[in-house]
């Protein structure tokens, strides 16, 4: 398992260029007896069938963020083991989960019921959900497990995410005669100030909805002696359960529209779009809206998973992801019961010297075996978890 993880990390796989990791994952799945296919988007789908019963899909995205400057790393960003720790881009987010679930699932004995599907999905770092949605059109699982890092604790939900562009359209003039124009940047400054005063709902488990300014650009830029006639602000809006795209957009349109109108400007507000081409050549254009999701700790599958993890000696206390995941597709869009579980400290994701302790990796594989066996078992079964 450790060597498999090192090969995955060495297979550099930024979003839209995941083919090296696809080849490593496909080869390992085939060697361990999984049926392996790759779909038109380049997602890897590995299947292990036990017989009639539920279909459990575990999703782990193959893509990683880029390494900005390898010289800043104290260990190789392409895989190095030192002091019981594996270093490298993607060790936490989220190639350790792939290694752990592949070996955890392959260790399960014959005689269970149902089917396990391991999905290595693409382009999650660009936009959460669409690649998994493509897999769900083909597999139709009864339950999904998202393998994002959770320090080997069960996760029951997450806030959603929308990326919103606010564009103010003013009127250019020479900066010596500002009264002849409408300065889009100044109008945007008023909009930004007003957005800070907006109130958002709170969910008892997921926490508060929120908004954060992430980009700001005026046009023309750079310029000399010209009032900008356009200014675009991009906001990251975190949503709670039940909030739709309209719930995100309408308050902003009302607020910004009033400010712009009083200043003699116009405003356009809409969801950002992510446009990309997968490594297989599929061109995609997706609106940036990923719904929040949450499952009950007292109902299947969460209650079953909590009991099994606790009985096996793992931390049974459920939690909630602070970041957005592909669960926005499985639970948020497709209404499939969804859980989260994965090795690694999420605080180490995307960092210089990203790393995972080998003990966490091995515990993650054990946790996946426990979790998958529990989800495949009939309600009357009492699996001998200590045999895993």
TrEMBL record:
Keywords: Hydrolase, Metal-binding. GO terms for molecular function: hydrolase activity; metal ion binding. The keyword Protease does not apply. SUPFAM superfamilies: Bacterial exopeptidase dimerisation domain, Zn-dependent exopeptidases. InterPro entries: Bact_exopeptidase_dim_dom (IPR036264), Peptidase_M20 (IPR002933), Peptidase_M20_dimer (IPR011650), Peptidase_M20A (IPR050072). Residues 157-256 form the Peptidase M20 dimerisation domain. Signal peptide: none annotated. This is M20/M25/M40 family metallo-hydrolase. It comes from Nocardia speluncae. The lineage of its organism: Bacteria, Bacillati, Actinomycetota, Actinomycetes, Mycobacteriales.
